[in-house]
Amino acid sequence: MAAFYARRLIQLIPVGFGITLVVFLLIRLIPGDPARVILGIHATPELVREVRQNLGLNRSLPEQYWIFLKHLVRGDLGHSYFYSSSVARLVLDRVMPTVFLLGYAALLTALIAVPTAIVAALKRNTIWDQLARFTFVFGVGLPSYWLGIVLVLLLSIKVRVFPVAGYGTGFPGHVRYLFLPAVTIALSLVPLVLRALRASMTETLQADFVDTARAKGLRSRSILVRHVVRTALMPAVTVLGLNIGYLVGGTVIIENVFAVPGLGQLMINSIGTRDYPTVQGVTLVFAVLVVLVNLLTDSVYLLLDPRVRGHLR
Amino acid sequence: MKRVRAARSTRKRTLGVTALAGLTAAAALAVAGAGWSTPSGPADSAAGPKRGGVLKVGRVADAISFDPVFLTDNMSIWAKLLLFQLLVRTSKDGKGVVPDLADRWSHSTDGQTWTFHIRKGAGFSDGQPVTSADVKFSFQRVITSKGSWAAALFPKMTISTPKVDTVVFKLKEKWAPFLADVSVHGAAIIEKKYFQKVGAKTFSDKPIGSGPFYVATWKKGNEIVLKRNSHFWDKTRPYLDEVDLLVLPDDNTRMLKVQSGEIDIGEDVPFNQINKLKSAPGIQMLVQPYDRIDWIQFNEKNAKFKSAKVRQAVNYAVDRNAIVKTVLFGHGEVPTSFLPKMAFTDTQNKPYPYDVAKAKQLLAQSPYPKGFKTTVTVVAGDTIGAQVASIAKAQLKQIGIDLQIRQLEGATQYSDLALGKYEMAEGYMTSDIIDPSELIAYAGAGDEGTYSVWTWYNNKQVNKLASDGLRELNPAKRAAIYTKMQQQIWKDAPYLWLYWSPARTAVRSNVHGYSKLPTGNYWLENVWKS
Predict the structure, then answer these.
(1) CB distance from A189 to chain B under 8 Å?
(2) What is the residue-level pLDDT of chain B in tens, covering all 530 positions?
(3) What's the gap in Å between the CA of A230 and the closest CA on chain B?
(4) Which of A15, B128, B173, B237 could form a disulfide with B525 if both were Cys (CB 3.0 to 4.6 A apart)?
């Protein structure tokens, strides 16, 4: 098991290198010059030259990448062109809100999707089943920024239950402030998880081992929880894991609407201002997070399914 | 995208000045009065100011640096002006300058020797008193630092400090906007000893000034927490204990947070929400004069726009009144000059009327009688800009010009502009000072570093008038020179001038004494909450 984790973590190294190289080149391919963005309307040719030199942008690309790598190996992500701050500090300040938001959203997704799927699978093709599916499929169709604003109008302006936007302070503050953005993300994930879980539960309910369990005289509740749901969760965990991984870099809109000071916001701003070191730093952290989310997903498999554990040995 | 635009396009132009005589009169008045303009605002209460409280201000972007010499955007500038004092600063109505760090000043009859006296009791937030050495050091940095943009605002000069509270500037040439230039944010007074100890890099993060507030914490891209400077010269002010400058880039979120009372002030109200917020309970909707002009510019390096006839035709063919009415919901004016509506702006001039027949006639006389195909670049995500471009497209079609709209991400649009890789482009400028001299250098004179905002418009007569105006100390003569210059630029039409628009701010009703200056910034030492 330890070897499995070690192997997965070592995989981070090539992934990290690959992704930084691609980002390094891509960001420099888009038109726009950090020096001009910094100087704005005062950008005379002499000033532009001077700033470019200060930022080291007059060096060749391989040379710039080499310098970046050398610093990276020492754990130094470089210095932001815009904020008088190291990239590492900027990124560290931003990791928690994003991780908190995604974890919160995943939790809410599970809390909504699992019970709904159980009801839908047990009462298949009844009005409850249809209702559950249609309500949430409707949810997929709504753009998240719109849904977010509607939730704010309802729950923050009309009925003042939750704050409009922000991150809050302390754990209770985060829970309160991030509720609406987390719900907004969750509502877009619930239909996907719900469908996967409902389908696999329907299938599992008809499996022979369920009949065996019934024949053994187990209570139906215990059959449901220990045999059916546990087995049926696997595809749903895959769907959730993949989507959370995808959301790591995709919460930008939600972070903007709800003014959550997360990584997505930092990324977009840095691309806009051509803050190369920050873009590279954030991308690297994204890569690490995605790998970690996948690892976490696999860990859940291990927990749920003894057969997978057997394979590892 | 929004923030990109904010970061790029809110870059301000610095100022110039009102006429020497006008300024001196304003100063004299101010000195004769309390030496300070009295707090006033739309919601001053009879109960009088109350000490204490936290003011939360929602802004579209974060500051970048607090070093006055460093080039920055409006968000940094407006924050800086809460931390530092200037020798003199723009008055609330934008018509002159009033005392700030200096409570008195005078000048020689030739206007080339200026003496400023530092007010008693002025102190930096670390407790050190402000001395003439700090003033000299700050100005030396402005005029000698490598890459200092504000250096261009000042003539060659020597600075001396005969007394601990007296600074004398000796100018090497006549310089009409000198007093207004002194009020530019770049000339903020910093603490010499502290700066020399920590260096520029640390200073830009953790500045020390003698303004009403100091930076307690700064979470980059998120919030700046300012605390009351207890060493401020006026012991009764500021009234507030703390000011939080919050980054809220999404327009809807910012406005909703003011409505719910989570923040006290929401800046940059979108035009389509002004009327709604006017009737919202608990909110004062401030619509105030702002030195800003928006335009679509022509690249004169491109053959299509070399002829003034073509540029004039475009100016006749676009209905600016319709744009103000539909896009700005009536909150704006059609310009009569290439400058914002400020000192020396020629308001007697008539805007180009919407006259399709005249436009067609002008185009017929140009090298492109049948019209042509061209493009306009717009910053992606800028909804106002996109709407303006669509209206222009529809109207230019009537005279045979086929306008394609190219939406570009902010930094790209700007970089293409400066490289001359565009045909037509949307843009705007705002002013940091009340004199137009620097905007003239930026957008009018073709012999300056920015080639008239990279239109490469270059009229020798205009350049000469700009230079003469800078050195003419008689306000009436100076006004005559600038009027002549504006009329020439108006005829040459290097821009399609769109509108002058106001500053829009949503303020909670329990906030008193808040007001925006035409330069876009605000003083907070007079603000209090009930």
Answers:
(1) no
(2) 323 233 333 333 333 333 333 333 333 333 333 333 333 444 444 568 999 999 999 998 888 889 888 766 788 899 999 999 999 999 988 889 999 999 999 999 999 999 999 999 999 999 999 999 999 999 999 888 776 677 778 999 999 999 999 999 999 999 999 999 999 999 999 999 999 999 988 898 899 999 999 999 998 888 999 999 999 999 999 999 999 999 988 888 899 999 999 999 999 999 999 999 999 999 999 999 999 999 999 999 999 999 999 999 999 999 999 999 999 999 999 999 999 999 999 999 999 999 999 999 999 999 999 999 999 999 887 889 999 999 999 999 999 999 999 988 777 888 888 889 999 999 999 998 999 998 998 899 888 778 899 999 999 999 999 999 999 999 999 999 999 999 999 999 999 999 999 999 999 999 999 999 999 999 999 999 99
(3) 41
(4) B237
Out of A37, A83, A157, name the one closest to residue B259 (CB).
A157
Partners of A44 on chain B (C-beta within 8 Å) are: 449-450
What distance, in Å, lies between the first and last C-alpha atoms of chain A? 8
CB contacts < 8 Å between A and B, how many? 138
Residue found under tokens 């840095």: A270
* Percentages of chain B per state (helix, strand, coil), in multiples of 5: 35, 20, 45
Beta bridge partners of B163: B166
The shortest CB-CB distance from B71 to any of A42, A85, A256 is to A42
Strand partners, B511: B529
Give how far B426 is from chain A: nearest CA, Å. 14
> Any CB–CB contact under 8 A between A91 and chain B?
no
Contact B299, B422 (CB under 8 A): yes
Tokens representing B151 are 């250096």
Residues in A closer than 8 angstroms to B11, CB to CB, are 40-42
Residues of chain B found within 8 Å of residue A37, distances taken between Cβ atoms: 7-8, 411, 414-415
Interface probe, candidates B222, B224, B255, B431, chain A, greatest A C-beta count within 10 A: B222
Contacts with B, A 34-53, CB within 8 Å: 36-47, 50-51
Q: Would you list the DSSP string of B293-341?
A: EEEEEE-TTSGGGSSHHHHHHHHHHS-HHHHHHHTSTT--B--SSSS-S
Which pTM was predicted? 0.82
In chain A, what are the domains? 96-274 (1.10.3720.10)
Kindly list the residues from chain A whose CB atom is less than 8 angstroms away from the CB atom of residue B54. Answer: none
Distance of alpha carbon A102 from alpha carbon B146, whole angstroms: 46
- Yes or no, beta carbons of A257 and B250 under 8 Å apart: yes
Distance CA B23, CA B182 (A): 12
Alpha carbons A312 and B519: distance in angstroms, whole number: 68
Q: In a 3-state reduction of DSSP, which class is residue B166?
A: strand
- Asked if A307 and A259 touch (Cβ cutoff 8 Å), the reply is no
Q: Which residues of A touch B219 (CB under 8 A)?
A: 93, 261
- Cβ of B250 and A261 within 8 Å? no
